[in-house]
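testing teh design pipeline on a random one, pls ignore if ur not involved
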Protein backbone atom coordinates (compact mmCIF):
# COMPACT_ATOMS: atom_id res chain seq x y z
CA UNK A 1 0.00 0.00 0.00
CA UNK A 2 1.39 3.41 -0.94
CA UNK A 3 1.79 6.02 1.75
CA UNK A 4 -0.73 8.26 -0.01
CA UNK A 5 -3.32 5.48 -0.10
CA UNK A 6 -2.73 4.76 3.60
CA UNK A 7 -3.18 8.43 4.50
CA UNK A 8 -6.29 8.67 2.32
CA UNK A 9 -7.86 5.60 3.90
CA UNK A 10 -6.96 6.83 7.36
CA UNK A 11 -8.54 10.21 6.61
CA UNK A 12 -11.71 8.53 5.36
CA UNK A 13 -11.87 6.40 8.49
CA UNK A 14 -11.34 9.36 10.78
CA UNK A 15 -13.94 11.40 8.88
CA UNK A 16 -16.50 8.64 9.21
CA UNK A 17 -15.60 8.16 12.84
CA UNK A 18 -16.18 11.83 13.55
CA UNK A 19 -19.61 11.60 11.92
CA UNK A 20 -20.49 8.76 14.30
CA UNK A 21 -20.92 11.34 17.07
CA UNK A 22 -24.47 11.43 15.67
CA UNK A 23 -26.88 8.78 16.92
CA UNK A 24 -26.65 5.33 15.35
CA UNK A 25 -29.98 4.04 14.05
CA UNK A 26 -30.32 0.49 15.44
CA UNK A 27 -32.90 -0.54 12.85
CA UNK A 28 -30.68 0.53 9.95
CA UNK A 29 -27.57 -1.02 11.49
CA UNK A 30 -29.43 -4.33 11.94
CA UNK A 31 -30.00 -4.45 8.17
CA UNK A 32 -26.26 -4.66 7.46
CA UNK A 33 -24.67 -8.04 6.75
CA UNK A 34 -23.26 -9.63 9.90
CA UNK A 35 -19.75 -9.66 8.39
CA UNK A 36 -19.81 -5.90 7.92
CA UNK A 37 -21.18 -5.26 11.41
CA UNK A 38 -18.38 -7.41 12.81
CA UNK A 39 -15.69 -5.71 10.70
CA UNK A 40 -17.11 -2.26 11.39
CA UNK A 41 -16.18 -1.23 7.88
CA UNK A 42 -17.59 -0.84 4.38
CA UNK A 43 -14.90 -0.87 1.68
CA UNK A 44 -15.53 1.63 -1.11
CA UNK A 45 -13.85 2.16 -4.46
CA UNK A 46 -13.83 5.69 -5.89
CA UNK A 47 -12.15 7.66 -8.65
CA UNK A 48 -11.14 10.92 -6.92
CA UNK A 49 -11.41 12.95 -10.13
CA UNK A 50 -15.17 13.57 -10.04
CA UNK A 51 -15.81 17.00 -8.50
CA UNK A 52 -18.19 17.94 -6.94
CA UNK A 53 -18.95 14.28 -6.16
CA UNK A 54 -15.53 12.90 -5.13
CA UNK A 55 -12.22 14.77 -5.29
CA UNK A 56 -9.16 15.76 -3.28
CA UNK A 57 -9.14 18.80 -1.04
CA UNK A 58 -6.29 21.31 -1.35
CA UNK A 59 -4.00 19.01 0.66
CA UNK A 60 -4.25 16.49 -2.23
CA UNK A 61 -4.95 13.77 0.36
CA UNK A 62 -8.36 14.31 1.96
CA UNK A 63 -11.38 13.24 -0.09
CA UNK A 64 -14.28 15.69 -0.18
CA UNK A 65 -17.46 16.09 -2.21
CA UNK A 66 -21.18 15.36 -2.22
CA UNK A 67 -20.75 11.59 -2.17
CA UNK A 68 -18.21 11.88 0.62
CA UNK A 69 -20.71 13.84 2.70
CA UNK A 70 -23.45 11.32 1.97
CA UNK A 71 -21.12 8.50 3.01
CA UNK A 72 -20.17 10.27 6.25
CA UNK A 73 -23.84 10.72 7.12
CA UNK A 74 -24.59 7.08 6.32
CA UNK A 75 -21.61 5.99 8.42
CA UNK A 76 -23.00 7.92 11.39
CA UNK A 77 -26.40 6.23 11.11
CA UNK A 78 -25.10 2.73 10.40
CA UNK A 79 -22.34 2.78 13.00
CA UNK A 80 -19.61 1.60 10.60
CA UNK A 81 -16.72 3.23 8.77
CA UNK A 82 -16.75 3.88 5.02
CA UNK A 83 -13.15 3.28 3.96
CA UNK A 84 -12.50 4.84 0.55
CA UNK A 85 -9.70 3.60 -1.70
CA UNK A 86 -8.79 5.51 -4.88
CA UNK A 87 -9.00 3.54 -8.14
CA UNK A 88 -9.26 4.18 -11.84
CA UNK A 89 -12.90 4.49 -12.82
CA UNK A 90 -12.94 1.47 -15.14
CA UNK A 91 -11.39 -0.80 -12.49
CA UNK A 92 -14.04 -0.31 -9.80
CA UNK A 93 -16.74 -2.60 -11.19
CA UNK A 94 -14.38 -5.57 -11.64
CA UNK A 95 -13.09 -4.96 -8.11
CA UNK A 96 -16.64 -5.15 -6.69
CA UNK A 97 -17.25 -8.36 -8.63
CA UNK A 98 -14.01 -9.79 -7.25
CA UNK A 99 -14.97 -8.88 -3.68
CA UNK A 100 -12.24 -6.27 -3.12
CA UNK A 101 -14.80 -3.47 -2.66
CA UNK A 102 -18.23 -3.65 -1.06
CA UNK A 103 -19.47 -0.53 -2.84
CA UNK A 104 -18.60 1.70 -5.78
CA UNK A 105 -19.25 5.38 -5.10
CA UNK A 106 -17.93 7.51 -7.93
CA UNK A 107 -20.69 9.33 -9.88
CA UNK A 108 -21.67 6.08 -11.58
CA UNK A 109 -24.52 6.22 -14.07
CA UNK A 110 -27.27 3.61 -13.90
CA UNK A 111 -28.14 1.90 -17.16
CA UNK A 112 -29.78 -1.38 -18.01
CA UNK A 113 -26.62 -3.16 -19.20
CA UNK A 114 -24.81 -2.30 -15.96
CA UNK A 115 -27.74 -3.58 -13.89
CA UNK A 116 -27.21 -7.05 -15.36
CA UNK A 117 -23.94 -7.43 -13.45
CA UNK A 118 -24.45 -5.18 -10.41
CA UNK A 119 -27.22 -3.69 -8.29
CA UNK A 120 -27.41 0.10 -8.47
CA UNK A 121 -28.95 2.22 -5.73
CA UNK A 122 -30.31 5.27 -7.58
CA UNK A 123 -29.89 8.39 -5.47
CA UNK A 124 -29.59 11.34 -7.88
CA UNK A 125 -30.26 12.50 -11.43
CA UNK A 126 -27.57 13.59 -13.85
CA UNK A 127 -26.77 14.04 -17.54
CA UNK A 128 -23.83 14.25 -19.92
CA UNK A 129 -22.63 17.46 -21.56
CA UNK A 130 -20.20 18.63 -24.21
CA UNK A 131 -17.04 20.52 -23.18
CA UNK A 132 -15.28 22.77 -25.67
CA UNK A 133 -12.56 25.40 -25.72
CA UNK A 134 -13.70 28.83 -24.60
CA UNK A 135 -15.46 30.60 -27.44
CA UNK A 136 -16.52 27.26 -28.96
CA UNK A 137 -14.25 27.57 -32.05
CA UNK A 138 -15.94 24.64 -33.84
CA UNK A 139 -19.45 26.01 -33.14
CA UNK A 140 -20.60 22.80 -31.48
CA UNK A 141 -24.24 22.94 -30.40
CA UNK A 142 -25.08 19.23 -30.29
CA UNK A 143 -23.26 15.92 -30.43
CA UNK A 144 -23.82 15.43 -34.17
CA UNK A 145 -21.71 18.57 -34.73
CA UNK A 146 -18.54 16.78 -33.58
CA UNK A 147 -18.13 14.60 -36.69
CA UNK A 148 -14.72 15.23 -38.24
CA UNK A 149 -13.22 16.22 -34.88
CA UNK A 150 -11.26 14.54 -32.06
CA UNK A 151 -13.33 13.72 -29.00
CA UNK A 152 -12.53 12.07 -25.69
CA UNK A 153 -14.01 10.70 -22.47
CA UNK A 154 -13.11 8.53 -19.49
CA UNK A 155 -12.64 4.80 -19.96
CA UNK A 156 -15.66 2.72 -18.98
CA UNK A 157 -17.98 5.75 -18.81
CA UNK A 158 -21.38 6.57 -20.33
CA UNK A 159 -19.84 9.61 -22.10
CA UNK A 160 -17.44 7.24 -23.87
CA UNK A 161 -20.35 5.02 -24.94
CA UNK A 162 -22.12 8.07 -26.35
CA UNK A 163 -19.03 9.01 -28.34
CA UNK A 164 -18.67 5.48 -29.72
CA UNK A 165 -22.33 5.54 -30.76
CA UNK A 166 -21.93 8.91 -32.47
CA UNK A 167 -18.78 7.67 -34.19
CA UNK A 168 -20.87 5.05 -35.97
CA UNK A 169 -23.26 7.75 -37.21
CA UNK A 170 -20.66 10.10 -38.70
CA UNK A 171 -20.22 10.13 -42.50
CA UNK A 172 -17.12 8.56 -44.03
CA UNK A 173 -15.76 11.92 -45.16
CA UNK A 174 -16.07 13.34 -41.60
CA UNK A 175 -14.96 10.53 -39.28
CA UNK A 176 -15.00 11.05 -35.53
CA UNK A 177 -11.79 10.16 -33.72
CA UNK A 178 -12.51 8.92 -30.19
CA UNK A 179 -9.82 8.88 -27.48
CA UNK A 180 -10.06 7.28 -24.04
CA UNK A 181 -8.53 8.64 -20.83
CA UNK A 182 -8.12 7.13 -17.34
CA UNK A 183 -9.56 10.25 -15.68
CA UNK A 184 -11.44 13.48 -16.40
CA UNK A 185 -8.49 15.70 -15.54
CA UNK A 186 -6.35 13.98 -18.19
CA UNK A 187 -9.03 14.58 -20.82
CA UNK A 188 -9.10 18.27 -19.93
CA UNK A 189 -5.31 18.49 -20.14
CA UNK A 190 -5.55 16.96 -23.62
CA UNK A 191 -8.06 19.62 -24.65
CA UNK A 192 -5.91 22.47 -23.41
CA UNK A 193 -2.87 21.03 -25.19
CA UNK A 194 -4.73 20.73 -28.50
CA UNK A 195 -4.98 16.92 -28.63
CA UNK A 196 -8.78 17.06 -28.33
CA UNK A 197 -11.43 19.31 -29.83
CA UNK A 198 -14.26 18.27 -27.50
CA UNK A 199 -14.84 16.03 -24.50
CA UNK A 200 -17.94 14.58 -22.85
CA UNK A 201 -18.45 14.53 -19.10
CA UNK A 202 -21.12 14.40 -16.41
CA UNK A 203 -22.80 17.82 -16.33
CA UNK A 204 -22.44 18.28 -12.58
CA UNK A 205 -18.77 17.31 -12.69
CA UNK A 206 -18.09 19.54 -15.68
CA UNK A 207 -19.91 22.57 -14.28
CA UNK A 208 -18.03 22.40 -10.98
CA UNK A 209 -14.65 21.74 -12.59
CA UNK A 210 -14.98 24.54 -15.12
CA UNK A 211 -16.12 27.00 -12.45
CA UNK A 212 -12.86 26.25 -10.62
CA UNK A 213 -10.45 25.94 -13.55
CA UNK A 214 -7.05 27.70 -13.53
CA UNK A 215 -7.09 31.39 -14.34
CA UNK A 216 -4.10 31.03 -16.64
CA UNK A 217 -3.86 29.12 -19.91
CA UNK A 218 -6.66 28.00 -22.23
CA UNK A 219 -10.14 27.99 -20.74
CA UNK A 220 -12.88 25.42 -21.32
CA UNK A 221 -16.65 25.85 -21.30
CA UNK A 222 -19.76 23.69 -21.16
CA UNK A 223 -22.12 23.74 -24.14
CA UNK A 224 -25.52 24.68 -22.72
CA UNK A 225 -27.66 23.77 -25.72
CA UNK A 226 -27.66 19.97 -25.36
CA UNK A 227 -27.63 17.31 -22.66
CA UNK A 228 -27.45 13.54 -23.13
CA UNK A 229 -27.80 10.34 -21.07
CA UNK A 230 -30.14 12.01 -18.62
CA UNK A 231 -30.94 9.51 -15.91
CA UNK A 232 -29.88 8.21 -12.52
CA UNK A 233 -26.53 8.10 -10.86
CA UNK A 234 -26.15 5.50 -8.19
CA UNK A 235 -24.10 3.53 -5.71
CA UNK A 236 -22.89 0.15 -6.98
CA UNK A 237 -23.14 -3.06 -4.96
CA UNK A 238 -22.56 -6.69 -5.91
CA UNK A 239 -25.48 -8.93 -6.83
CA UNK A 240 -24.41 -11.23 -3.99
CA UNK A 241 -24.86 -8.52 -1.34
CA UNK A 242 -28.60 -7.74 -1.08
CA UNK A 243 -28.47 -6.99 2.66
CA UNK A 244 -25.92 -4.22 2.14
CA UNK A 245 -27.91 -2.91 -0.83
CA UNK A 246 -31.11 -2.70 1.19
CA UNK A 247 -29.36 -1.11 4.18
CA UNK A 248 -27.85 1.64 2.02
CA UNK A 249 -31.17 2.21 0.23
CA UNK A 250 -33.07 2.51 3.50
CA UNK A 251 -30.47 4.83 5.01
CA UNK A 252 -30.54 7.20 2.06
CA UNK A 253 -34.35 7.25 2.10
CA UNK A 254 -34.32 8.10 5.81
CA UNK A 255 -31.89 10.95 5.02
CA UNK A 256 -34.28 12.27 2.38
CA UNK A 257 -37.23 12.06 4.75
CA UNK A 258 -35.52 13.95 7.59
CA UNK A 259 -33.83 16.58 5.41
CA UNK A 260 -30.15 15.60 5.79
CA UNK A 261 -29.92 14.55 2.13
CA UNK A 262 -31.32 17.86 0.88
CA UNK A 263 -28.85 19.88 2.97
CA UNK A 264 -25.92 17.99 1.44
CA UNK A 265 -27.19 18.57 -2.10
CA UNK A 266 -27.71 22.27 -1.38
CA UNK A 267 -24.18 22.56 0.01
CA UNK A 268 -22.72 21.37 -3.29
CA UNK A 269 -25.08 23.33 -5.55
CA UNK A 270 -26.82 20.21 -6.86
CA UNK A 271 -30.33 20.61 -5.46
CA UNK A 272 -31.74 20.37 -8.98
CA UNK A 273 -30.36 16.81 -9.19
CA UNK A 274 -32.04 15.56 -6.00
CA UNK A 275 -34.69 12.82 -5.96
CA UNK A 276 -37.51 12.21 -3.50
CA UNK A 277 -37.47 8.40 -3.55
CA UNK A 278 -34.48 6.04 -3.56
CA UNK A 279 -34.89 3.21 -6.07
CA UNK A 280 -32.80 0.24 -7.14
CA UNK A 281 -32.05 -0.79 -10.75
CA UNK A 282 -34.52 1.78 -12.08
CA UNK A 283 -32.72 2.63 -15.33
CA UNK A 284 -35.71 1.49 -17.41
CA UNK A 285 -37.45 4.69 -16.29
CA UNK A 286 -34.99 6.48 -18.55
CA UNK A 287 -35.02 3.98 -21.41
CA UNK A 288 -34.06 6.57 -24.03
CA UNK A 289 -31.01 7.80 -22.09
CA UNK A 290 -28.65 6.84 -24.95
CA UNK A 291 -30.65 8.82 -27.51
CA UNK A 292 -28.56 11.20 -29.58
CA UNK A 293 -29.70 13.99 -31.92
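output:
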Amino acid sequence: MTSKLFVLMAAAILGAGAAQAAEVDPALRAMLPEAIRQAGEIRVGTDPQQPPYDFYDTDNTTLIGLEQDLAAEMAARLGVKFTFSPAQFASIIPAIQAGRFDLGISAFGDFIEREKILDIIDYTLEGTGLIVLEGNPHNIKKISDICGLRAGAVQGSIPLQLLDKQKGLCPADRPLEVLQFPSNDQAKVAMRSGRLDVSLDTVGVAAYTLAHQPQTGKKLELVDTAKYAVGYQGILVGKNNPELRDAIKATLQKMIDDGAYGKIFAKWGLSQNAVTTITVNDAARWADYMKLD
